[in-house]
Amino acid sequence: MPGMYPDDQLLEIFGERVMYPGLDPETHKFTDGDFSDPLKKPSHIPAETFNLILDNLSELIVFLEEVPNNTEPDQLKKAITGALEKKLDKKAMGYGTCTTSASTADKVGTLADYVRNPGVIVGIEFSNANTAANPTLNVNETGAAAIIDSRTGAAATARTIGNRIHFFQFDGTNWVLINPIDENRYYVSFKITDGLDYISLGLIVNDSFFENEISGDATFSNITNAQFIAAMKTYFATLNTARKTVTIGGVGGQWQGNVINHISLMMVDSTTFRIFLNTTGTPYTFDLTDSTNTPQFAVNVSMLN
What we know:
Layout: E1 9-13, E2 16-20, H1 47-63, H2 75-87, E3 94-98, E4 106-110, E5 121-126, E6 136-139, E7 145-149, E8 165-170, E9 175-177, E10 185-194, E11 197-206, H3 207-211, H4 225-237, E12 245-255, E13 258-259, E14 263-267, E15 272-277, E16 284-287, E17 296-303
Parallel strand pairs: 3-5, 4-6, 7-9
Antiparallel strand pairs: 1-2, 3-4, 5-8, 6-7, 8-9, 10-11, 10-17, 11-12, 12-13, 12-14, 14-15, 15-16
């Protein structure tokens, strides 16, 4: 039998030819012999076999980062248990929180009993969606490390972290963001008024809707009418239609005796929209770049993520 069992040898002892160490001829393992048949003798266990067993056990204990001895009966158990605890260290996994402000790049995470080890995955719940470039993460003062987008391998952008739970894996140098968000979403509401008549519109957009025109305002909380028009112009330019028309949801209002429940917008030029009310009738053309004109125009933007 291959493995750690010794090979039988034919020896002559005191004039008698015997097999040593006398393994079972069928199983090739040590045997107790047959007490009812004196010809079936028990095996001997050579010193080399004992040494081989002890040497292998000692090497295993050393590999498991313990020191073998000849007194403790449970040293192999201790070595294996210790290795498993190091490999599956619960202190290096778990759920934490981060309350760092959106505009601060150096994010600070709190995770009880955390130990930073390469390969470990942690979940951090962010109270604030990030708006800072090149963010870092420091969990329990283990040191700040750059946050890397798992999709690109590059530094996470300003809006890949939302106010949600994100999962990170430490690669030994950086925090790899496993579940980045593509973009934040915003609800844009704008209102056109002319005396008692008004039109309320709503549009859900992503960061890219604004950021080409308003790169300095990360949350778009201070957007001006002119900036919104510029963003709308860019947005309309990307539409793959001849008339550059888009239907807007979340509408309402009343205009010249009509209840408004459906609106389409068409970009006429760089300063003017043509608004189709309820898809029928004569469209109304409004110059929306000057808030002093009639009708009045107002914009409000709120983050959805």
